[in-house]
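Re: duplicated header lines in exported structure tokens

Our pipeline writes sequence and tokens for each protein into one text file. With two proteins the header for the second block appears twice in some exports. Here is an export where it did not happen, for reference. First protein block:
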Amino acid sequence: MYFIEKLLRQPAWIVVVEGLGLVGLIGWIDHVTGSEWSCFAPYAVPIVLVTWKAGRRLGFMMAALCALTYWAADRLDNPYQTQTGFLLAVFVWWFYFSVLVVAVGALKGKSKSDQLRIQAHEYSQSLELQILNASEAEQQRIGLDLHDNLGPHLAAISYAATFLANDLRRGGLPEAAQADKINAMASDAVILARDLARGIFSLPMEGAGLAIALEDLARTTIGRNKLSVTFHETGNPRITDPQAGLHLYRIAQEAVNNAAKHSGARKITIALDMIDDYFRLTIADDGMGMAPAPNGSRGMGLHTMRYRAQSLGGELKIESRPGAGTIISCQTPNRSCQSTMPSI
């Protein structure tokens, strides 16, 4: 096999020349051995090599040359009683050689098609990873703007409203109550911006960091949506690769946000379990469930969650029935979370 691969790495013209040499050698052996030995199989070697490397046209020419060589080698010593019978045998050999050319050409075409399919799949995965990287970078930028720009502005508005309310109260003016409301609204906006920034900026994920981040996700979701959101862990799960932990956190974040916004759920449960050599992340809600999507398609969020799970070497499962809630689970092998993950 190595010898054949080495031959096929050569330029096409060299393979053709070597094929011609093989035909001559096989023809000489065929002539020397006479009718006692059949050289049908050896003739296939140059035909296959030339067809694979140089294409069908030269392959058919090589098939015809092999048939002619067989005729020349055995025309004086063959087991056929008549010359017509021998010529018919030569024609049959040529036919078989031509079929071999067609088969090798089809196999080469399939090989190229498979290679192109693999390249397209790898390119698609590369594009998905680039989109994921761009999305993560944009989230980090938005989180930075919330934390460093919007947060301080809202805090300044709150302080200004406080000073205004105090001045209005000292002047005995009733508008002080309105200033207090503005102050309260600005304070709530500061808390909301801070929680949003914390949801976008991921905490350190190694060790117990993922569990801490998921617990914080549950708390902030309660604050924003007035839902019952709980988190629990079993088996003392510990992540050694922060990128793997970030993938799992983003899966949980997308699932929780979908449940809070679209499912009508009153209760959401987040669970992180260590079972033997596997991490299992589960997000369950008691909402209306997910209606079957047209043509089996889902939104970009679910597609991204599946891609994150696959990048961990795991699988994302969705169990949902209308009116019975939804359970989204991601189970990944522990070894994948300890290996080098794609940077996002």
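Second protein block, exported in the same file:
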Amino acid sequence: MGAYILRRLLLVIPTLLGIMIINFALVQFVPGGPIEQIIAQMEGGGDVFESFAGGGSEVSQGGDSDYIGARGLPPEFIAELEREFGFDKPPLERFLSMMWNYMRFDFGESYFRSISVIDLVLEKMPVSITLGLWSTLLAYLISIPLGIRKAVRDGSSFDTWTSGAIIVGYAIPGFLFAILLIVLFAGGSYWRIFPLRGLTSDNWESLSLIGKLLDYFWHIALPVLASTISAFATLTLLTKNSFLDEIKKQYVMTARAKGLPERRVLYGHVFRNAMLIVISGFPALFIGVFFGGSLIIETLFSLDGLGRLGFEAAVARDYPVVFGTLFAFSLLGLIVGIVTDLTYVLIDPRIDFERRG
């Protein structure tokens, strides 16, 4: 197993390098860099894309061609901006310098916020941890028992109406379900039971420990429910199908023929094999919800998390934030893939990736 883990770790390097090369190369052809953003604001254009809508010359990240909207600014000022942002260097030199800094986990500072990328991510982390952790746990706590129940009672009326409810839940987008929750329970048109913004109340610091916990869960109830609905539907059907596949196997029929109680057959024999796919996918599911935070849900509930951070950085062309978070999250995602394989082995020691290799 050690050789397999070593091979996977060595594959992380070229995979991560490929991700960064592709994204860095694509950015070179995207108009409206950070310098153009600043110039557009100084010229009163509001946004650089408004200048493109009216036509004009092509924009590059370097200093060889004129910037749209920069005709009234001194060339020395434009050159100083390029030096400040590092765009006076060739793209290859900028990429190599960036990767060298990232290898030392130096992600630099945001262009427009005067704060390091790490501090900026840590500032947004509580929201993403809240949505990712509680949404994943809630999905598993509901989906696994429900999926097992549906598998045991396959074809019954219970299975039929729960499948209908699951399909409806899967078909409803998370943001639409969030709007429904706001309308019903957050003062939209009916009841004002839950708050609409933030993770805590203004007087959170003055509350007791129990009061802080209750206030925290009071605030996260609606956004967590909105984030859980799609994962809940998928996970329930996956659990049911896994159980159905195992129940039909010979060893289950043998265990029943020996007179073992049904509960022992299900939870002593079937559960371990059926849950292999479901439980081993927990790390990947958590990371997916954690870093794929819904921009719309965060906006609807006035939560400032990684979803909004990524969107705002992309719109503002805040490249240190865009590439820094891309590098860190891609690296973490690749490591989680290895952890997922180890989880397979932990749950079922019969699996040997090294022998397969």
